[in-house]
Design brief:
alpha/beta; TIM Barrel; 2 domains; globular
């Protein structure tokens, strides 16, 4: 089943269903419906404050589940329940020892066929994989058993470790919302079908310019754009929700590139466009690449334009997480972590402050980074 866009009327009904589901999670958690109502009301207050009291005009439905962005699991699902259980516990703990982690990013490999201008893993790229599937999975099990709701497989390029990627997806199928962050290089129809069958829910494909030659230059490979388009088409054909991750440079913003990228996504049936801040790490270390406030404001205004205007319903949802930073602090080390290819934990892909290195699955410190 291909992804279907959901309009405001249906989405309002779905919102109500989701809120009732979250309230019921709280009832089971707190053993008190009034306490649950109060905590859910606080969650709603925080979200509406972050959104400027506006409502998204669209959601997306795939395989009977509803998505509205990249950072919350689809509803209804076990991943959604686990995710929001942790979210409620952030607002109202029960005994102070619960896991608050909602999302785990997993760099399953540092292999990659590309040489990207902005690669945050430039210092470790192409290194040999260290952890076996069994060693990796026992570490992931620790988080899943304690209630992580969303797993995001990245790299390097996660497709470079394809057989193990399928095994990870199969292992956690139905227990977590599962994503890949990918360049889509080599993502044939056969591979897309295998990923969907194994348990992949959604994919974020990296695209950094709407013009083929410019994207290929940025990615250091003259076939990258071709595989982006092939991969997106193949995933869509298998009923996988597709987003694109865009890292806009100062030059691209000055040229009006972000608006052109949204139009490009619209023309190609892409559901979500996610604009990421360039960060002075990895290949960009010690370079003047980070966006100034005016550039950030332009991306935030673009997201507001497309997300809350009913006349633009047929367009993608446009995300710029940094635009909500004042209302919602970064969740790195609190609501999500990165598990690296050697077993090291970091608060996020950009913060290279090590948490327990090559930690053992039984190590309670794994879940103490909140």
């Amino acid at each position: 089943m291909k992804t279907r866009r959901v309009g405001p009327t249906e989405y309002n009904v779905i919102r109500l269903g989701m809120l009732i589901n979250i309230w019921w999670i709280g009832v089971r958690l707190y053993k008190n419906p009034i306490t649950s109502f109060r905590v859910v009301r606080q969650l709603i207050h925080n979200f509406t404050k972050m959104m400027g009291r506006e409502k998204l005009v669209r959601a997306f439905k795939t395989d009977g589940k509803y998505h509205w962005d990249m950072f919350n699991p689809a509803w209804p699902s076990k991943g959604f329940e686990a995710f929001f259980r942790a979210h409620l516990l952030e607002l109202q703990p029960v005994n102070g020892n619960e896991q608050l982690l909602r999302r785990l990013l997993i760099a399953i490999t540092k292999r990659c066929p590309l040489s990207c201008e902005h690669c945050s893993e430039a210092d470790t790229l192409y290194q040999k994989d260290i952890l076996s599937f069994e060693e990796f999975s026992t570490r992931i099990d620790t988080f899943v058993d304690k209630g992580v709701g969303q797993l995001v497989y990245s790299g390097g390029e996660p497709l470079s470790r394809f057989d193990d990627l399928l095994r990870f997806l199969e292992r956690y199928k139905g227990r977590c919302d599962q994503w890949i962050y990918t360049s889509a290089f080599g993502l044939s129809q056969e591979k897309a079908k295998a990923l969907k069958a194994a348990g992949l829910n959604s994919a974020a494909v990296s695209l950094d310019h709407h013009i083929e030659e410019e994207h290929n230059r940025f990615r250091g490979n003259n076939k990258s754009f071709y595989w982006v388009m092939e991969g997106i088409k193949n995933l869509q054909n298998e009923g996988v929700l597709v987003s694109i991750n865009v890292c806009p440079t100062k030059e691209y913003i000055a040229q009006g590139g972000p608006s052109k990228m949204v139009e490009f996504a619209h023309q190609n049936g892409i559901s979500i466009v996610n604009f990421l801040e360039p960060r002075a790490v990895g290949a960009y270390a010690n370079k003047e690449v980070e966006l100034n406030q005016e550039e950030k404001d332009s991306l935030h205004e673009l997201s507001l334009k497309y997300n809350f205007n009913k006349s633009l319903f047929i367009y993608p949802t446009v995300l710029f997480p940094a635009g909500y930073r004042k209302a919602l602090p970064c969740g790195g080390g609190r609501s999500y972590l990165l598990l690296d290819f050697d077993g090291t934990l970091y608060p996020c892909p950009f913060c290279k402050t090590k948490l327990p290195a090559v930690a053992q699955p039984s190590d309670e410190r794994l879940c103490a980074a909140s």
